Amino acid sequence: MMINDLNQSKGKVYIAPTIISTMNKIISSKIWKKVTVRAQHVAPLHTLPIQLSYGMILLFIFMLSTGCTATTAQIIPTERPTITPTFTTAPTNTPEFMVTLTNTPRPTPLGGATPTPLFGPTRTPAPDEPTPTRAVNPNAPRIEFFTSDSIAVAPGEEVTLFWSVRGADSTVIYQLSRTGERERLWNVETAGNLTITTRNRDRGQVTFLLSATNNVITSEQTLSIPLACPVNWFFGPPPEECPEEDAQQSLIIEQQFQSGRMVYIGNTDTVYVLFNDGATPKWLRFDNRYDPAIHPESQENFVPPPNLYQPIGILGFIWRGNDTVRNRLQLATNVQISFDGFIQTAFTFTNTPSLYISSTDATVLQLLGNGDDWQIITAP
Asked: Which of 30, 111, 140, 358 could in theory staple to 217 by disulfide, Cβ–Cβ 3.0 to 4.6 A?
């Protein structure tokens, strides 16, 4: 109730029901001793007129308003907390001790000559590289299969090929050389079989190429068949390569120098000069032009230092007549040695020609390529 309403009530105030309970507490506490209450009806307190003096009324209204304006802290409901499960790790059995195995390195020899690989450098397979995937042309001939009846044959033996092609107008089978060149060829049907006799000179493997075309697009597939080696090496254990032919016995003259050696092969009448000075080429080949009837055996007015020698005869003729040979080899460290030995040729897996020559001390000289490199193969 507002204050101006009290002025209009002429001393009478009608208390709202909302504050009846508060008034009852005040009356029961006997705070107001000068307040007279005249009941008009015997009824609940909210219908009773109460006669109050204006001073008391104002005091009562002040106290009442103070009580009414008391505020209660607002309770804001919050969301129910989410229960987060807590995982407890189960105890594990911890061993009382652990044994760690370690490799004990082998002792490294401190002295002695470094052994030379028996058959050249070890071939380390190249890491596998991803094979690019080519999109298949739906208009290209389709080779369904290309195979043979043998997993390996010997040179001179027969091998039967089988194939089947779809969508081709013509089909050809080629035999490839070591370097991938097309040599022998057979015109065949789009499906069938063909028996081929391998050549006695084939070595390592024999490779065939199936080529099918529809006059616009050509499809090809290769097939390689390993060949057994029909020839034995003149030394052992044998290299992985297969020799081209049987070993040939020959007169060999060999002499060692300060920076290499010279070797004469009687069968081919050829001189090989091998350098170990680090320069290239690593070795040279010369045809023998020495004629003892017209060429002197040595240079008479040349006297080498002690324990060094001037080469004579076939080797000396090339040494005296070629500045590169003489300057790179320098002087001989021993006299030349003549003996009966063997020579044999082969191709490496990279199609590099290789020549094997008997040497002194039961060793073998291997000459690679055309001056590319050379090495001494020692017996095991």
From this structure: 140
**What pLDDT score was predicted for residue 163?**
94
57-91 as b/e: b if 16+ CB within 10 A = beebbeebeeeeeeeeeeeeeeeeeeeeeeeeeee
**What confidence score (pLDDT) does residue 16 get?**
52
Residue-by-residue DSSP string for 249-307:
EEEEEEEEETTEEEEEETTTTEEEEEE-SS-SSSEEEEE----TTTS-SS-TT--PPTT
Domain definitions of the chain by residue range: 3-66, 142-226, 248-377
Preceding omega of 121 cis (within 30 degrees of 0): no
Mean pLDDT, residues 321-345 taken together = 96
Q: Which residues fall within 8 angstroms of residue 204, CB to CB, at 6 or more apart?
A: 178, 226, 227, 241, 242, 347, 349
Best CA proximity match to 363, nearest among 338, 349, 342, 348: 342
Q: pLDDT band for 52, please (50, 70, 90 cuts).
A: very low
Confidence of residue 24 (pLDDT cuts 50, 70, 90): low
Domain 142-226 has CATH 1.10.260.40: no
pTM for this predicted structure:
0.55
What's the rounded Cα separation, in Å, for the pair 364 and 354?
Answer: 12
- Non-local CB neighbours of 348 within 8 Å, separated by 6+ positions: 120, 241, 354, 368
